[in-house]
Amino acid sequence: MPELELLTPTLPKLALSTNGNGASPKTLASGKDVIEFAKQQALKVVDVKFVDLPGTWQHFTIPLSELEEDTFVSGLGFDGSSIRGFQAIHESDMLLIPDPKTALVDPACAIPTLSLVCNVVDPVNRQPYTRDPRYVAQKAEAYLKSTGIATKSYFGPEAEFFIFDSVRFDQNQHEGYYFVDSDEGIWNSGRANNGTKNLGNRTRNKEGYFPVAPADTLQDIRSEMVLRMIQAGIPVETHHHEVATAGQCEIDMRFDSLVNMADKLMLYKYIVKTVAHAHGKTATFMPKPLFGDNGSGMHCHQSLWNDDGPLFYDADGYAQLSQTALWYIGGLLKHAPALLALLAPTTNSYRRLVPGYEAPVNLVYSQRNRSAAVRIPMYSVSPKAKRIEFRPPDPTCNPYLAFSAMLLAGLDGIQNKIDPGAPSDFDLYESEQGKHVKQVPGSLAETLTALENDHEFLLKGDVFTKDLIETYIAIKRAKDVDPVRLRPHPYEFFLYYDA
Length: 499
Known about the structure:
With 499 residues, this protein is an alpha+beta fold. The protein is built from 11 helices and 20 strands.
């Protein structure tokens, strides 16, 4: 195939494949397959990736000559005490076991690089590490099958993000500030500096959904992101500008099973950030970087299947939902306060989840209603398309933990036949009925307390462990909640300095 001429000289050019997965044209089942693939692709080095407890990819690189078939059994050593949420200093040695099925040509490296996602193993007992988020997701899939309820769970996250032209921020004892800028930002409509022409064509607040160029300046950058995703084995359905001014975007992946989708979401974020960086821009999945405009969420479409049969469809049910689907919704709504500690896991997440601003804070379900926590999409009448959409999550979550937790909450709903109540097909903000609807917690601190008090459903099948949950809560309180609580907010000077 001819190479695609890209706009970014610092990233490798792409040779698009007719099968949509040129980076790894077939599923590689063994270490031997991976090594042969790497040689066929003339790759030079191997990048091994794994995820820490909060949900950030970590990596290191070895020469291709150091990758042997035995590596996929014996593993590669690393210092677990330097990884967030992992080991103490006196038990730091850990192993990475590469997963052959994740092998692909790294989409962001100029040096031809083999990328491998790894599982974490304890070197002493050779058992999977219980704080490895990917292992949690693998256990969640196994537990689903053991229940007899379904054989597969499918997830389709819609991760929104901003592409800015610059960002500056600092916080110390005597000052605290942030500054983000985008040429697309409506605040630049009056800009006149250094003789630069101002050509206008900027989207106003909340008017960024679907305008064409020149208002949408990011078409080609998003298309390049999409092509790199396709090359890396991620089927993409669509991309577009999102609602907010200043470069809010969305790229939608085709749904996949739980572990596969979590792997793909990590790769998705990696590609978005590296392509933006190569264009001299910066991408962020922060839920609420701008005041006065929409934040970035990650609505999660999900469904259960038995082999090739969808379990969420009933032609005679409300919104064509089966009783199984309704009980699944009941589990999500019941456990939502605890779930949000994993699904909306930053203090900034609750700048987005604010009542009265069309955010999905209402713990109800409805067809088509985007202000409900659970929405039932009505675009298709096909049984295979019937799914539910849980809207409070945002893309700062660890997808392995988030998808697993939602699945377990839904299964708990099915197992205990939790009634989600009547649907809320009314205006949740303007109507009298809406005033009495239960809402999500208003802060990360509240959700952590909720998780502390409601996590038995996560322990089923040993998917989550008490140790992991306790470690996660401790990290979030020490590294997120308390640091923000201890620092004066810049707006407090505006409110209180003259007191």
